[in-house]
Write a structure and sequence with these properties.
Main location: secreted
CATH topology: TIM Barrel
Number of helices: 11
Shape: globular
Subcellular location: Secreted
Keywords: Membrane, Signal, Transmembrane, Transmembrane helix
Order of helices and strands: HHHEEHEHEHEHEHEHEHEEH
Pfam families: Polysacc_deac_1
Oligomer: single chain
Bound molecules: zinc ion
InterPro entries: Glyco_hydro/deAcase_b/a-brl, NODB_dom, Polysacch_Deacetylase
Amino acid sequence: MGKANNYDDYIDSRHSSKPCLGYCMLIFSALALSVGFLFLILFIGLDDKAKVKETPSAMYQKVRQLAKVGQSDHNKISKKNPVAILMYHYIREVEDKTSDELGYSLSVSPTEFEKQMNYLSKNDFDVITFKQFLQGEIGERAVILTFDDGYEDFYTSARPILEKYQFPATVYMITSRIDQGGYLTKNEIKKLSDNPLFSIGSHSATHPNFFTASQENQIKEIIQSQTSIRDITGAKPADFCFPSGQYSPDSLKILAQYNFKTAVTTEERLAFFSDNHLALPRVRVQGSLGLDGFVEKLSDFFKSYEASATSPGI
Ligand SMILES: [Zn+2]
């Protein structure tokens, strides 16, 4: 023990202040370098995360592209693919269909709506935005979801289901009805527009007939609705929906003049990139369809396109 103590003393005596300083400096430098590297790695990592956070739509795009990997001959993105622009109104239960026939035909129950979205998800439909459509990023069996009038049940009933499936959608607001019973509130519109899945379009200010309305009145309706939406969301809407699907050639010129990029009608067929983007047709989803009717209607439209696309075309 005594020897060992002496040895320890001897070792200790060799560790005089000078060599200790050298060792300490070495250790300190190594530590400083490691900490520096750690900060560098952390910084790059955080920076990447911040970039993704800034552009959630880019993240959505990536997920969409990744989802396509492994589906070799399926869901090829092409400008030539048709799109079913689905037209919904209310997502709500209607108790008595006989007393309110119109209300019934415009209403899809939340349960049926969930089944329809589940069907789209399970069957590899490509649910896209108008922006993607305008860029020609159209997968096979593409769908755009649209909701007319701006009913509050979009926020309470449709939104949670769309968020579950991560399906984007456009809501066309009649801006004079904002904050009125049964319609979206300013607060809800703001929350929707802050979510990259949802986009707020214009459905005019007071829902007049654009086929019979004067040019002045059409301009007034468009400016009013644009301003109301911009005041809430901070951006002018790019997508328009003609009230009851009515429009004149003047309407298209006015929409272009006021920088609208798309407008939808009630003409029923699949839409194509080659169509006039300011008079796009849609596919109506009536309340009476149910899941079977929905599946049948959608597959009939796509089948008739596939048949015409593969026909010799004499
Ligand atoms: Zn409407």
